[in-house]
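Predict the 3D structure for this chain.
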Amino acid sequence: MENPRPQLSQIELQQLRWFLGGLIGVVSAWTVFYMEVDALLALAVITPTVPFFTLFPRFSRALPALFHRLAFPLIVTVFALDLWGNREPLPAMIRLDLMLLGYRCISPRGRREDLQLILLALFVVVVTGVFTVSPAFVVQILFFTGAALGLLLAVTLSDARAGGVAGNAAGWEQVSWPDLFRRLRAAADLRVVALAGALFCGVVVLSALLFLALPRFEITNDFFIDRLITKSSRTGFSENILFGEVNKIAQDGGMAFAVDVKDPAAVPAELYWRMLVLDEYSGQGFRTSAGLRNSFPPARDKAMVHGGAGRAREDRTTWTIYYQPGVSRYLPLMGGFGRLHFGEPQALAQSPALRIAALPSEPAKMVGYRVEGMDTDGVLRDRLFAREHILPAWDSPRARIFFNHEATPREADDAEAATGRESEGKEPTFLELGGVAAGDLDKLRAWVAEIGGPGAGGPDFARRAGAWLQARHTYSLDSTTPAGEGDVIVRWMGSREPGHCELFAGSMVLLARSAGHPTRLVTGFKGGVWNPTSGSITVRNSDAHAWCEIWDEANGSWVRTDATPGGRITPATTAGALSAGASRMEQDTGWSARLDGLRVFWYRRIVSFDQTSQLELVRGTKDQLRTMLVGLRELLETRVRELVEWLRQPWDFPRIFGSAAALGAIVGGVWFWRSSGRSRWMAWRSRRAASHRHDPVRREASRWLARLERRARATGAATPPELAGTRERLLRLRYGAREGWAPPAEVFAEAKRRLRELGRAGRTKPAGR
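Done. Predicted structure below.
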């Protein structure tokens, strides 16, 4: 029965192969963005060039022969210089792969070249899959897999249609893509397409199940990934806040980190994730003083487990945090902790007094860590500050202004400036108000008196000052600071303008310090939502927040205080508030939350805290690879030095004669091999061949026949008359008895000469047909 469905011709199959090859090249090249390897130049060339040549394949045929002759030597030279100059094997190999991929996409391709293209693209995809944990990469790799399978199918159909003879159909470069896609739609059997799609989805589902069932660990740091990634911050957490620059806060709904908690019932009513403490006020903003920075000792050596400075607690709740890249090098923590366990060895710097931990640099990939024994009540004990700092602070010039008025404001400013110069780099007292003018100090004293004075300690004053601020100002992400001279925060407090959290927190610091209470500003994140898809807490970049910590001299501790409307000014102390449970949290059930849930499921598979043996295996493999590369480099350097030293030696007659003789021997050997040595070697092997299949002469004749077939299709004739005699002699070599052979070397030389002559004639033929 005749099949009425139209079939794609050889030319259309070739056009489809060309399109899918260009698509695979671009998709695989773009996966480098997940690693942020320094390959922007290669990507900048590939991104416009490959689509252009893909849509207009006739320009590929227009590339001169010199371009193809120089392409590979130039690529190898660039790779060698890159490897020699940067001394980073993996980035150099990725850039080499991109260069080869780009060349293969724009040059004419046959079956072998299409397979090379798939392998080059697969290398980039596999390497990216090792180094990235992005769920978006999963979608990209599925798209790549579908396109690669389609290209393999097109190659198979094209070979079957051509009878197994390699080559391209003549005239395929003249393509109309809309017509091709209409033909493809008409030729496609929907039942076959549906079956293929179902099989592909089944393989994807099976792969996902195997991924969830099999253990997996991340090997990023053990294969030089830190050298491949460019660190960049997305949220702007830094060691200073300038209020004149913060007028409007943009809402970034991206996930900052996700949290798995072992006991959801232990989640407190209010989640405050501390990251950075700012103490020094300059009149325009806050920053971390040199003395406070000195409280950070150098980062410890890399380890998976780091001890903390938290209080001894019976609560053994564990918190697993999946920290996103580009947020900050400071880790979000609610307070002190007993132990911090990373999924892979990390260097960690800690400030025991501030209960802050930081990585050496901003992570450029997701960092997973588990926290045990973390304080969540918003109270930080600080015996060292109580013993060494609080008594001298009450006797400071600024305190005498408010309580005893023993010095004028100008005298107090001069005294504090002198004290600051003498104690620069020492630990702060958290009472300094440097940069605040005398008139602004008078306003602060008046407002403190209006609030009711210092009161019975820091928390008591914080509650009254917070209520006073909330009565005068509302909360808004878009704030306006009144114009004028003097302190920015004082101008805002004197107005009725709404403000964001930084303004409320800064105002609380100024008021509390004016009242004699040591206070510091804290930045981090507040809150989070419960994601029912993954059963975890999601904290977004829009949850970034600023608040204060005021000194409670009665208990010798820092107490959290948040004057921003919408929450408690000081922490609740009831048992219900300390362990309200995740069930009381706001639940996020939107589509973005479901995608975040899938991301958390992914993170749970790649982060493990108990795979020491696997990490040791990877570390040993890394050491062996590094040793091998170092040894190879040293060997090459030694040989190059020996060659240079030999060339620098005096060139007398014996050296010149010996070098010329050696060069002559090499040239003579090459000439002999090309003229008669190769044919003699082939004839000897041919006589010893066990069958026609293993006969080198017959295989060489088969290759020349394939070249003749390609030339015949290019000219549009069955066999050009000039090649008829040559073809007949090649057929005798391929299939005939040995006794009827002409000398094989002469036949192959004749075939090479005839094809070269036809090639030159074709290039000189006028383009107008």
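Residues 611-649 form one domain.
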